[in-house]
Amino acid sequence: MEQNDANSKEPKADAANVRPGRPDLKDPRLVLSLLEADQVVAAKSQSRFGRRPFSFGVSAALWGLRIYVLFMMVIVVISVIHAVHSAH
Amino acid sequence: MIEFEDSGGDSERAADARDLTMSWSGQRGSAERPPAHPTTETAAASERDLTGLLTHEDIDRARDRYQVARARRTGHSKALANLRLLWLLVGPGILVFLGENDAPSMLSYSADGARYGIGFFLPFVVLTFMMGFVVQEMTVRLGAVTHRGHAELIFDRFGRFWGLFAMGDLVLGNFLTLVTEFIGVRAGLGFFGIRPSVAVGGALVIVLGAITTGRYWTWERITLSLAIFNALFIPAAILARPDWHAVGHAMLTWSPLPHGSHYDILVLLLATMGATVTPWMLFFQQSAVVDKGMQPRDIGAGRLDTAIGAALAAVFAIATILATVPLFRHGINSAAFQGAEFAQALEPWIGHAGAALFALGIFEAGIVAAITISTSSAYAFGEVFGTGHSLNRPLREAWPFYLTLIGSAFIAAGLVLIPRFPLEFVVLTVNVIAVLAMPPALAFLLLLVNDREVMGEHVNGIWANAAGIGVTVLLICAGIGFAVATIFPKLLGG
Mutate which of B66, B333, B397 to test chain A, going by most A C-beta atoms within 10 A? Predict the structure, then answer.
C-alpha cells in the first residue's frame, strides 16, 4: 500500500511539515503544503478540463448506447405492466 | 485541451486563484492548467492572499491529509504504520459496496436463495462483485488524479448535451432507488410492529444526523459504523444451517442451474447484476474519493479499500442467499415477498432471533443506502451547477448541496408513506433500470479513464480496458436478452 517512489510529485508536507501533536492549520502554508494545487477549492473552481473532440466511432457508440437505454426503458414499462397484470 | 474557465469578470478573488494555481505549476502567464499533481511547495502568493483563498473545506481536507502524512512517516513498525494508513484511507470503497448491498439488492439476493436454493447464484454473485470491483477501481484513480467528481468530468469533457443524458439516468435511478430504501426501512422495522411513519421518520433523523457534523471524515465514520451491520445476515445464514458441502460444490461447479420460467430467471439475473453495478456507485465513489482528499499516492490504498468493500459485500450477499434457502427447501412461494415478509416466512426455520436479525439487516441496508445515495445525488448536483459540494462545508456555505441531499431523502420517504402508492412497481423495476442504464455510464467511465490529458500516467492498462469492455458487453447482452424475453415471452417459455 505504501508507495514511496522517488518520482512521486506529492506535496512535500510528508517530509517537511509534519510534527507530532495537533497541526496549526491556521498557517495557510501548512494547509497548502498538504494539498495538491488543484485540490484547493479556489484554484480548482478557476480551471476546467476542456471539451474533448469525439471521433465518428465514439459519437456513434454514444448514440447507440443512448438509443439502447431509451429502448430499454420502454421495455421496462412493458414488463412492469405485464407483471402488474399477472399479479392481479 | 485544458483551459481556464472564463470567470465572466476579473474579480480579485478569481485573479488571485489563477495566480496561485499558475505559481504552483511554475507557469505564471501561461494559459495552461497546471499538471495533474504538482507540488504546492513553491506557492509564491503572500500569506494574506492565501488566507483569503482558503476555505473551511480546504482546511478540513488538509487536516485529514496531515493525519495521512503523519502515518506515512511514523516511527512505529511498518505493519502498524500500514494498518494506521489503511484505517485513515479506507472509506469510499467499503461504503459504496455496502451501500449497494441495499434494500432492493438484499431482496434480490433473498429471491435468489428462496426460489433457486444453493447453486448457480452463489458463484454468480461473486462474479458480479468482481465486475463491480473492476469498474469502481477506475473511479478511485479518476478521483485521486483529477480531484473532480464524475459528473463534473463528464460535463467538462463531453459537454452539456451528453452530461445531461448521464445526469438524467442518474437522477431517475437514484430517486427510484432511494424510494426502495425507505420501503426497506419500513418493511424491516415493520417486522417489530413499528408504524411506517415512525420507521421512516426515524430513518430521516439518522440521515440528517450523519450530515450535521459538517465534516467528511465524521460522516464517513458514522456511515461506516452503520454499514458494518450489513453483517447481520451472517448469523441469520448460520441459523438457517446451510449445507456447506452443497455451498462448496456450487461455488466450484456453478451448479445446479436454476430451473423454471426462463423469463423469471433472466429478470433475477438482471436484478442481481443491478445489485452490484449501478451508475450511482460510479458517481458516489469518485466524489467521495475527492471529498476525502485522496491523492495519486493513495491509489493503492483506494484499490485495497474497494477490494475490501467488494469482498465484504459479496460475503454478506451470499449470507443473504443462504439465509433464505429454507424457503426453497420447504417449497414456500416467495414470488411477491418484500423485506418483512421474507423475515416472517423464515421464522419457523431460523427462529425468531434469526428472523429479527434478517429484518434488522433489511432496515440497515435501507438506511445506509439512503445516506449514500442521497449524498451521491447531492454531489452530482453540486458538481454540475458549480455550487459547493463537500461534506466538509458548513451548511451556510453549501446549502444547495445539503438541500438536495435532504430534499431527495424527504421526498422519497414521503412517497413511501402515501397510501396505495405502487411500491411493488418501484421495487420490481429499480435494479433492472440500474443495470440497463449502466452501459452508457461505463462508456463515459472508460473514455475518461483512457483520456491521457485527464489521467496522465494513470490511464487504463490493456487488462483494465479488456475487463471494463467485457463488463459493458455482458450488461448489454443481458439487457438485450431481457428485451427479447419481454417482447417474445414464448421464445423463452415465459
Answer: B66
Predicted TM-score (pTM) of the model is: 0.87
Q: How would DSSP label each residue in B427-484? A: HHHHHHHHHHSHHHHHHHHHHHHT-HHHHGGG---HHHHHHHHHHHHHHHHHHHHHHH
> B73 contacts in A (CB within 8 Å)?
14-15, 18
Q: In 3-state terms, chain B is what percent helix, strand and coil (to 5)?
A: 75, 0, 20
Q: Using the predicted structure, report yes or no on whether residue A2 has a pLDDT greater than 50.
A: no
What's the CA gap between B424 and A62, in Å, rounded?
Answer: 32
Amino acid letter, residue B274: G
Cβ under 8 Å to A: B residues 244-303: 267, 293, 295-297, 299-301
- Is the Cα torsion angle B207, B213, B214, B216 positive or negative in sign? negative
Q: B165 CB near a chain A CB, below 8 Å?
A: yes
Q: What are A5-39's pLDDT values in tens digits?
A: 333 445 555 544 566 666 777 788 889 889 998 89
Nearest by CB: A31 against B59, B85, B159: B59
Query: What is the helix, strand, coil percentage profile of chain A, to 5?
Result: 55, 5, 40
Helix (DSSP H) and strand (DSSP E) numbers for chain A = 4, 1
ipTM of the prediction: 0.81
